[in-house]
Fold:
Amino acid sequence: MDVTTRSDATISSPEDSARLPKGSLPDRPCDVCRKRKSRCVKELGQNKCVLCTFHQRDCTYLDAPARRKRKRRDEAELESPSIGAASVSSPNPGHSLLNSTLGLHRTSHSRFVGSSSVHEPVLWALQEPYVGTSNHDYVRRVDANTFFVTENDHQTPFHVEELTDIDEIERTVQPNGPKLVEIYFRIVHPVFPILHKAVFLEKYARSYREFSPPLLAAVYLLAMDWWEYDTDLSQKSKPDGSQLLRLATNSFTSVVLRPKLSTVQAGLLLLQRYGGGSWIMTSQVVAVAEELGLHQDCSSWSVPDWEIGLRRRLAWAVIMQDCWAAALYGRPPHVSLKNWSARRVSLNDFPETAADQDNQDGSTEVEKGRRLFIHLAALTEILAEIQGICGPSGMSPTVSALEELLTQVKPVAMRLRDWKASMPAGLYMEDVTPRKLCSNGYLHLAYYTVEILLHRHIIRCCSVSSDPTLVSLCREAAKLRLEHAVSFVDMLRPEHLHAFWWFASAESVVLIGTYNALLWATSPLQTEADTYKNKLDEFRWSLKLRATNLKFVTIALQQLDKLPTLDDRLRQSQVLVTSQAGVWPSRLSASTMIDEDTPQQTPSHFQFDWNAFDEAFSPYLGPATGNSVLLQRSDQGEDT
Structure:
């Protein structure tokens, strides 16, 4: 696709000339791009720039250009060639703004130099920072103490196959690639913002060949889930998704040998498409992220400002992917927040705002997406703390005494309460804009998942307690969590269900079912066991009613069908119930069996304030009926 910048554009009609203020030059950005501080790129022979065409806006030049401040030469050389710059570049890819980036250079890749590696930072600090292209490896210093070794892509294996892969990917979707890109940025990107939209569209306007094959394939694959949301595409047959997935996964194994930010982006998007079914790919994404230095604080690096924001978003996307996958797959996490110094993501790290939002029906909202991402990152920190208390695999208790466990988790419960209280009104489940999709559901499902993960561990530890009253209180609290989670699923509206749900959603729904089954298996009374068995049947039925054309619900149902049969005969005979580490007792202890005719008192040696603990977990949830009361506070502040 041939593209020209405004400097190469010609005024094709008197009407176009009239749009330009007197004395202005046609090489400046249009009004929309200048207000958004975006690069104004125009395809050859077109009267509108790429972004105005994409958003179906008028491409005008009515406003007078802003006066520019003169800068010293050294400042100009170090200045970020950000998307906001109105600089003019040739359509020649060799002069792309990506050439000044660290993680997205077109022809080379950079690997982070750790302090304990064979490279000696003290020696490199004596050298001049070298930034540019070369036929040989070189070291790039991005601040006083941070170095990267840069290597040309052509020196890595399988590089020559990249053009073949990208051409085959494009042939698979032709001529629908641009439509799929539009769908992706309408529905997926606003609520999972791990790309830089303006950079992506600028590259796409030049040529699809500028992309890493697995990244472009992943964008196409995700967008195909909303194929019917485009009027033109809905009349056509879908491309071969299995072929596209094969090309994406095969090419991903090749590009990890020359790691770039696009490699991390591709891996994260493919994991969302998989429904989160690959712990191995999660491991690869974490490894590539660390190769690229995403675990480091990049605030002071001499890279473009927009790349700093992108790096922060990607760092937290990787942290969230790893932490949630570890919790839901029962694996030790790769990422330790103690070893990752990346700063918390803030609103300033997101280049798009509500002004960039697509107004078509069935789109998602940019402002909600930014705050959703930030809030999910904060929830992930709480989950990481829970994993530290409940064991690295989330399966085997590290605290043998129930009383000690409750004491340890109470501060976490308080943090969870504060997290919920800080939620902006725009992230409430009831905040649904007419004819817009709403992805708030996957944030709230994540919250219920954290509750269940913690209470599941408490229920496991109940088996070693000799205090029947405390066990009863724990089981009652656990029951409330189940009812709240099931009620949440029941209240989902079509605007929620048809929006983007991230990879952990399917596993989280399955967790609700397995948690239900755990409460059945550990029920001391047959009537209680019958209640949980009926709840699981009702939950399955509720999911079946919602499964049509909803991938994450379908995946959840398939996994729930693999659960062991809830056989009351086995439960009543108190068969062996073992955990992975053998901590779970061989039989349900007689001390856990509640005698309804015997008065129960909590022993004086442990007086636990359960009301405060329970309040900390569900400050905005209704009574034991499971009816959720949505957060309604007039004094609610917003995240920053």
Q: What stands out?
A: The chain has three domains: 1-91, 161-351, 395-591. The mean pLDDT is 78. Residues 306 and 351 are 7 Å apart (CA to CA). The radius of gyration is 27 Å.
